[in-house]
Amino acid sequence: APKAEAQKVPVLATPATRMLAKQLGVNIDSVKGTGPMGRITDEDVRSAAQKPAAKPAEAPV
Amino acid sequence: MVVGDIEVGTDVLVVGAGPAGYTCAISAARQGLDVTLVNKSELGGVCLHKGCIPVKTLINVYRLAEDIKIASTMGLKAEGASVDRRKAYEWKDTVVGKLEAGIRELCRGSGVQMMEGSCSFLSSSRAVVSGPSGIQHVIFKRAVIAAGGRHKPLPGIPFDGSLVINPDEALDMPDEGTAILGGGYAAITIAALMASQNKKFTIIHKKEHILTFLDEEMLRPVMRRFQEKGVAVHAASSWTVKRMGDRVRVELDIEDKKETLEAKKLVPDNGMIANTDGLGLENTAVKTRKDGFIITGENYRTDDPSIYAIGDVCGMHGNASTAYREGESLADILAGKTGLPDTIVTPLTMSTDPEIASAGYTETKAREAGIDVIVGRFPFTANGKAVSIGKTTGFVKVVAEKSSHRILGMHAVGYEAFDILQEGVLAIEMGARLEDVVLTLHPHPTLCEAVREACADALGESTNIRENK
Amino acid sequence: MVVGDIEVGTDVLVVGAGPAGYTCAISAARQGLDVTLVNKSELGGVCLHKGCIPVKTLINVYRLAEDIKIASTMGLKAEGASVDRRKAYEWKDTVVGKLEAGIRELCRGSGVQMMEGSCSFLSSSRAVVSGPSGIQHVIFKRAVIAAGGRHKPLPGIPFDGSLVINPDEALDMPDEGTAILGGGYAAITIAALMASQNKKFTIIHKKEHILTFLDEEMLRPVMRRFQEKGVAVHAASSWTVKRMGDRVRVELDIEDKKETLEAKKLVPDNGMIANTDGLGLENTAVKTRKDGFIITGENYRTDDPSIYAIGDVCGMHGNASTAYREGESLADILAGKTGLPDTIVTPLTMSTDPEIASAGYTETKAREAGIDVIVGRFPFTANGKAVSIGKTTGFVKVVAEKSSHRILGMHAVGYEAFDILQEGVLAIEMGARLEDVVLTLHPHPTLCEAVREACADALGESTNIRENK
Ligand SMILES: Cc1cc2nc3c(=O)[nH]c(=O)nc-3n(C[C@H](O)[C@H](O)[C@H](O)COP(=O)(O)OP(=O)(O)OC[C@H]3O[C@@H](n4cnc5c(N)ncnc54)[C@H](O)[C@@H]3O)c2cc1C
Ligand SMILES: Cc1cc2nc3c(=O)[nH]c(=O)nc-3n(C[C@H](O)[C@H](O)[C@H](O)COP(=O)(O)OP(=O)(O)OC[C@H]3O[C@@H](n4cnc5c(N)ncnc54)[C@H](O)[C@@H]3O)c2cc1C
Predict the structure, then answer these.
(1) B137 forms bridges with which residues in the sheet?
(2) What is d(CA B414, CA B448) in angstroms, rounded to the nearest whole number?
(3) Which positions fall inside the Pyridine nucleotide-disulphide oxidoreductase dimerisation domain (chains B, C) (predicted)?
(4) Rounded to an integer, what distance in angstroms lies between the CA atom of residue C163 and that of residue C167?
């Protein structure tokens, strides 16, 4: 359910945080935000990146 | 096939120097890659030569002529304000030339190798370029297709440049008695340019209103303007088009009755096709969709591991800012970095009179998606700067999630709407709430105060309009 | 003292109907409070009658006349573009009248009681209003002083309306041979208006440059414009002013030598004083600073528990957007809510040619504060829309914290700088980083693309200018 919701109302993370997620290979839609109103912070992204579940981004050639 | 002697080797071959291609080439070269940019026509693509820039340049001149007439009530004296069409088009060419020289400088300065000619792939590592200086072979490690798109003719009615005109070529249309068929982006842009030149013409569109991706109210000021300018606008449920000697006959179904229209010229806006013909994609593993656009996956990759594609040739957004971004993003990827993240919104801008700019959810789309939204509006008639400069047509509209007050859409129709939208675009990307905009100072007197007041209206607390809707 | 029979009782008495006062009155009345608004002159204050709006309105007309001349290279034909001064000032009055009527409607519509006249406090719960319809007593529970400020004469040289002119009254100055003394906000605004009217005049300022709250480079396009217009600009370390019959003599110390200037009119910008004379503050516990401005603490409270003060009468920022905000904030407080939080920045705007707009840390201020910053710039010569419309003067400058990339200042000088600044203002308030703006799409072609490119330049990655500084 949160996934469908996330598609309707866009993820609550600033562009810079979304960039960080991309760099760390974190799927931002699956990160739980700890900021106000569920905002995803850089720290949330970093700790998600540490979890083994996080699939790294496709490595560029 | 006759091939020349010269064989060029390059790391990255970029095909097409529109916004997508040249941005990618420059940015990749700056990051130290060996880049060759091939382009078959002028540098800058549709955006610089047929679209964004020429339209803005020409409309600005004609708008000035109009402003002068209106400003006679403001104390401005100027006799016989009018536009010398030939000179205006020369000025347009000057502007384009200046910007093209700038792009050329940027390419040179960042070490991009430039080749003029039409490029065709021979394999996944080899292409041939046929240009004014002969035929050259290029051996590449990776290639970027940024060949753009063009307008598609109506089935069985090819563009002929005199009777049936491609919207891409419609900038130069001097004649009266034209019919524009379609209510999409290109149709309306061309219509706006023609209206600014006080031409008499007809717009025929399907569906309930033109530019259906916008809330209908956003169009009202533009439709009113068309009306004032004597442009005939017909909504039809369907039509058939026939060439009749030096005329085009359009038969319309309008509310169960038929009407027939004859036009001296027809500009059909029938959607886009990709510039993939002659590209030799059959010699690569690149796949296209049924409609001809190139299929890409993660990181702009095609099905050919050494070939990427960006911009209009992929048929996604069809605007220059997206093309720029994809160019930058792909350059990073080619240089071994991660690309740029997705944006939440792609702002859309229409060079109409007045301008329309729109980003994110419209009220209609939000309701269709089942999002519970609140909406705020603020008219430019109540904005001090707009009154000061006599540009009171239009309004700003904001759409926000009801529970969180998060801004999901910002829309503006009015003078300089493109530029005043940007605060809204940033607000959406930052996940700002209505309160964030309302609590941010807006200098006075500015048009962007209307953005703030629209947000305040959504919160039900604007002091600047009497009735909160 | 003769007093009338009528005695009015009110919950909230607001003194002064400038931006601060009328906003507070309307917003408080909308929240259900019983509000009486007293004003001694026209509704709307300095902003509407002498400042922001008239300046913008007049400059716009003169700018149009200039645009017409420039646009002859763009194919625009118009003979003898000029401005009919009398008509332009009539148009200004029309604009002001329209906006004043709007404010009046808003006041009425929200139930604000309006009284015309000069207000003086008799105690902390009683005031007297002397107006055209006689003298009235008002008994109030709470009062808001929003009486604004005005310019201060030079010591010993009072304004006389003919030889020595108050900057607040300088809008109507028809004469040549004026000297403007001072390099502050009002001086430069008046100078810009006079320059737009092609008057020959002189600016004399102290310190190293005018508008010293800005980085010097922001002024260069404006100074160049003054030069083109034949405005003489003198920097002096000190000066003395003497009236000499129908002339004013100004003796200047310029780099150790003396120079003497004679002017037919002098407009000295010697800072502001509060409009507290005649307010009867001595009958209340309200305290003022040595310079006459009212002292307020938390929640706009004066030292008198029943009296609040907002806007220019407190002498803080001296701009209309702050006055509006304080009005709204105080209305909330009076209605029992908390007021609005402080903003991080107060955007400053200068109606010069081209416009200057500035928010947050300048490079100089950031370095003075010991903040390690990075800076980015982008010139309008490289912006597609600016080139299209022939408005390539100026640039955008961004100041960001080096470690975090957080945007701390945004500054723009150029066409429509006020409106394109706003994205930067929101960026600062939202705590946005350079990346946030760079990764947000900016529609093309827009002036605000220059904001993005300035941010990209600070990050060292703009594809649109060759040299990153
Ligand atoms: C009338 C009109 C108005 C528009 N107004 C706007 C607007 O205001 N704002 C906006 O954002 N967008 C606007 N657009 C859309 C915008 O112009 C396009 O989205 C943009 O140009 C796409 O960029 P691109 O780089 O993908 O492709 P293009 O700009 O189409 O460039 C492709 C380039 O590739 C070259 N090429 C193609 N095939 C080959 C080959 N085989 N070999 C070598 N070179 C090749 C072409 O010659 C061309 O130079 C407008 C479009 C039109 C038609
Ligand atoms: C030339 C010039 C240009 C300017 N340009 C800009 C600009 O572009 N942008 C900007 O933001 N700001 C600008 N300003 C500043 C702006 O005008 C002021 O900051 C703003 O008007 C302050 O609002 P206020 O409500 O505090 O006071 P005011 O606007 O001064 O209003 C005070 C009101 O109180 C009334 N009053 C005073 N005493 C009494 C009394 N005893 N009884 C009854 N009524 C009384 C006055 O008549 C007046 O109507 C400019 C100022 C000048 C002079």
Answers:
(1) B7, B128
(2) 11
(3) 347-454
(4) 12
pLDDT at B221: 96
Judged by CB atoms closer than 8 Å, whether chains meet at B77 and C95 is answered as: no
Helix (H, G, I), strand (E, B) or coil at C19: helix
pTM greater than the 0.80 cutoff: yes
CATH of C347-459, one of 3.30.390.30, 3.40.50.720, 2.30.30.240, 3.30.1330.120: 3.30.390.30
How many CA within 13 A on the CB side of residue C95? 35
Amino acid letter at B232?
A: A
Verify cis geometry, omega within 30 degrees of 0, for the bond prior to B354.
yes
Give per-residue pLDDT as tens, C262-272: 999 999 999 99
Q: Is the peptide bond before C445 cis (omega within 30 degrees of 0)?
A: yes
Asked if residue C457 lies in contact with residue C468, where contact means CB atoms within 8 angstroms, the answer is: yes
The CATH number of the structural domain formed by C154-269 is 3.50.50.60
Q: Give me ligand 2 centre to Cα C316, in Å.
A: 13
Q: Does B444 participate in catalysis according to the annotation? A: yes
Exposed/middle/buried for residue B144 (C-beta within 10 Å: 0-12, 13-18, 19+): buried
- What DSSP string describes C124-169? SSEEEEEETTEEEEEEEEEEEE---EEEPPBTTB---SSSB--GGG
Looking from the CA of B315 toward its CB, the CA atoms found within 13 Å total 18
Chain segment A5-56, per-residue pLDDT in tens = 446 899 999 999 999 999 999 999 999 999 999 999 999 999 999 976 545 4
Ligand nearest to the CA of C168: 2
Length of chain B as a residue count? 469
Q: Is the C-beta atom of C129 inside 6 A of ligand 2?
A: no
B-chain CB neighbours of C419 within 8 Å are 416, 419-420, 446-448
What ligand is nearest to the CA atom of residue B42? 1
At B5, phi and psi to the nearest 5? -85, -35
- The answer to whether residue B427 neighbours chain C at the CB level (below 8 Å) is yes
What is the average pLDDT value for chain B, to the nearest integer?
A: 93
Using DSSP's 3-state secondary structure scheme, residue B392 falls into coil
- Which residue matches tokens 């999901």? B408
Answer whether the bond into residue C354 is a cis peptide, omega within 30°: yes
Instruction: Flag whether pLDDT at C467 surpasses 50.
Output: no
**DSSP character for B153?**
P
Instruction: Please give the structure tokens belonging to residue B29.
Output: 């070269």
Question: So what's the pLDDT on residue C174?
Answer: 67
> Do B154-269 and B347-459 agree at the fold level?
no
Residues for chain A: how many in total? 61
Does ligand 1 come within 6 angstroms of the Cβ of B348?
A: no
The structural domains of chain C, with segments of one domain joined by +, span 7-150+273-335, 154-269, 347-459
**Residues of A with Cβ-Cβ distance to C405 under 8 angstroms:** 16
**Tokens representing residue B168 in the block:** 């891409």
DSSP codes, C421-436? HHHHHHHHHTT-BHHH
pLDDT tens digits for range B106-117: 999 999 999 999
Instruction: Determine the Cα–Cα distance for residues C172 and C15; give it in Å rounded to an integer.
Output: 27
Distances from the Cα of C349 to the Cαs of B441, C144, C357, C361, in angstroms? 12, 27, 4, 14
Q: With beta carbons less than 8 A apart as the criterion, state whether A33 and B406 touch.
A: no
CA distance linking residue B225 with residue B88, whole number of Å: 22
pLDDT at position A7: 63
β-pairing verdict for B373-379 and B394-401: antiparallel
* pLDDT at position C4: 52
pLDDT at C77: 92
C-alpha B324 chain-centroid distance? 12
Q: Which residue has the higher pLDDT, C465 or B270?
A: B270
Amino acid B403 reads: S
In this structure, CATH architecture of domain B7-150+273-335: 3-Layer(bba) Sandwich (3.50)
Decide: B302 and B315 in contact? Cβ < 8 Å: no
- Measured between beta carbons, the chain A residues lying within 8 angstroms of C438 are 15
